Amino acid sequence: MSIDMAQFHQVFFEESFEGLDIMETGLLNLDMGDVDAEDINTIFRAAHSIKGGSGTFGFTAVSDFTHVMETLLDEMRDGRRQVTQPAVDVLLGSVDCLKEMLTAIQGEQEVDVARVAEYKKALEVELNGGESEQAVTDEPSEPSTIESNTDNVTNGKNIWRIAFSPHTNLLKTGNDPVRMFRELGLLGELTTTVDFQGVPDFYDLDPEECHLSWELELISDVPESDINDIFDWVEDECDLAIQRINSEVETDTSAFTEEQVKEETPLSSPKEVKTESSKKDIAPAEKPIKKVAAKSAAKTSSSIRVDTAKIDTLINMVGELVITQSMLSLVGEQFEMNKLDQLKNGLSQLDRHTRELQESVMNIRMLPISFVFSRFPRLVHDLSSKLDKKIELVMVGEHTEVDKTVVELLSDPLVHLVRNSLDHGIEMPADRVAAGKPETGTITLEAYHRGGNIVIEVKDDGKGLNKDVLRTKAIEKGLIDEDANLSDKQTYELIFMAGFSTAEKLTDVSGRGVGMDVVRRNIQSLGGNIEIISELGKGSTIAIHLPLTLAIMDGQSIAVGDERFIIPLGSIIESINIKESMINRVAGRGETFRLRDEYLPIIRMHEIFDVKTAQATKLTEGLVVVVDGQGMRCGLFIDDLLGQQQVVIKSLEANYRKVEGVSGATILGDGSVALILDIPGLVRLSNQ
Amino acid sequence: MAEEAENIEAELTEEKKLENLVQFLSFTLGDEEYGVDILRVQEIRSWEPVSRIPNVPSYEKGVVNLRGAIVPIIDLRERFGLGHLEYSPLTVVVVLQTVTDLGQTRTMGVVVDSVSDVIDVDKKTIQDAPNFGTKVSTEFINGLASVKDRMVMLLDVEKLLKIDTLDDEDENT
Lengths: 688, 173
What we know:
The structure holds 2 protein chains of 2 kinds.
Chain A: H1 6-29, H2 37-56, H3 60-77, H4 85-106, H5 113-137, E1 158-166, H6 177-187, E2 189-195, E3 213-220, H7 224-231, E4 238-244, H8 258-262, E5 271-272, H9 279-282, H10 286-296, H11 308-333, H12 340-364, E6 366-368, H13 370-373, H14 376-386, E7 391-396, E8 401-403, H15 404-425, H16 429-434, E9 441-450, E10 453-460, H17 467-476, H18 488-493, H19 516-525, E11 529-535, E12 539-547, E13 552-560, E14 563-568, E15 572-576, E16 583-586, E17 590-595, E18 598-604, H20 605-608, E19 623-629, E20 632-638, E21 640-648, E22 662-667, E23 673-677, H21 679-687
Parallel strand pairs in A: 7-9, 14-23, 18-20
Antiparallel strand pairs in A: 1-3, 1-4, 2-3, 2-5, 6-8, 9-10, 10-12, 11-12, 13-14, 13-21, 15-19, 16-17, 17-18, 19-20, 22-23
Helix pairs in contact in A: 1-2, 1-4, 2-3, 3-4, 3-5, 4-5, 4-10, 11-12, 14-15, 15-19
Chain B: H1 2-20, E1 21-29, E2 32-37, E3 41-46, E4 60-66, E5 69-75, H2 76-79, E6 92-99, E7 105-112, E8 114-122, E9 141-147, E10 150-155, H3 157-161, H4 163-172
Parallel strand pairs in B: 2-10, 5-7
Antiparallel strand pairs in B: 1-2, 1-8, 3-6, 4-5, 6-7, 9-10
């Protein structure tokens, strides 16, 4: 009997992507100087489980690839290998590559074999190179300093091949090969190949003896004498051969590949120290990933991972509820008036438990905002190096919990905002220094609860928004009139208009003027709003306010005739009885009333919803509820306010369709259905 | 022996017949008799007051709470232009469901005068809906069946439940 493995694939992919995220975060957090073994361990574990999983499911390409990564990480974990930036960059590139492979497999597409091979090679190079370094670690010297500078290669250089095999007593005389290599490195581009075949077993190893020999390649325009000068001190304690290979070297550094190193190498099994090949491999990984990710986006799973603690609370809650229920049914079985207190107690308990149960059920859907935030370190890392900017990302309140739907829908707008801050907000390092600011810009992502809302802020200490520029641009594009009188807030909000962009030139990062309007629309569709605070030269803050959950909200039920509607409590400003003197008519029809210094339009609910049973048809008879819908204020004319209650939002569209002016429906205490009003929609409806 | 063979043969033909048989729930609207595929019927309820939806055609009566789901109620009489009949406790709501292309179930209640019977119809005997041109809209009618000399119009539930598209069409015309 065979088990259908396909049913587990989804879980595997989810876990793998999670693992990749962990690896990425871990790698980005690695501090070169002071590496925490636990960090490496975390990365290693993630790689290990991906390898295991992919092996089980027969994704051999993935498991082979991860195996190489794992070997590298294993050595780092055991301290056999130094953690270097190039190595980390190669690993990051590999994470990208793995992500690509997995997405391809998930989408049942072809894996880009060439790309995988490329990364695998980079890994292997790093792995082999590292091994030779590891041999050097046995020596009382710092091997990671054997690095060469790759820059400043000009025409007319020679390749010098230096065979350097020191005698065992070299170190005892106070000479350190590393120092000499460092000096050689200053002369030009240096590649070192170490042969540690001579290293004896660990037990026989005298740490003060040097058993290594080196094959060095130097691309430089210095004469032979300069090289000889460096080895001057150790001439008697080593075998040295300096040889010029060819006189002209191509300027392109990438042409200097490992083939050249291998070529004519006299040593029997040389290991290449090649540290510089990795960096440029990393950047191009971004684009293809995006492409594949976009394709598979439609296949997103709808499962959710829940903390066991949350489930336990839930089970406890249900237990309590059952107890209360049985208590109540006992009271109800033989009810007498003297049991009234008991009944009341039971009911209030029931009320409490139901509320708690509701809260903990809602809690299950809550995810920490770090699910969204976690992708930003990488984004900032990649983009800032692409833009040549120095940017530090600070994240505050990642543990703030939000509803899963909100989390999912929030990520795209946030990416957009952060990209904007990176590209337009933070200035180039030189400009920052000139402006008297620290060279490194800071972008802060902050999430916190305020009232029933969650607030997410994207803050940068960049150049801020220039009101004058915004204004001129808007006039230029014909978005506003030349003599329009705009408040600061209104001016900033110009950036949310479609087609608005102040960037002088387009980059592939941002500046096309599409996006901010989409961002705002997305946020508004979540029932939130977005605001900008900015100070020229100091930076800008974009704050997103969102409801905690989309499933339950506080509502005010109102009556129009014999129909009940719910107004979202958050959009109600006040309710008033209006007097005849407050009413003004525009062209005899459009009704407005004056509320303090403002004239607000009146929307007669019974008219636009065609309620025939409405009791109040004269404005002075009913009530006017002043509501705010996306910045538009108006008065809703209704019969009566009924009461406030928490309402569970039900979709009308599931079985029916969208109705203008209505955002959803809910079920009232008596089991009947009440429609939830959509204020902006109502305003639109009344304007038709 | 021959008798036995006959029996088997009879059984076989019976089976064959069953294969082609489709069951319909028939109900009346005025003098007319309609049928819907019985597998599409979720339940039959009596009429209860609905919550009106504003600014929709009058045949869309409103929505009700059906065990936590918001379900629209359509008056088929009005939908087919047969005039309105006062609702009484005896008025029947047939709750129909269908699966959309996206795999979601959509549920809708239709108000009918009364439910009459469950009828077996041989697929082969279903006749195409007659074409009356634009005079009479037959878009919801899948075909006609004859049961005990009565004509039953078989409705296409999928089309009936596609409220959005219907209204888009209405708006366009």
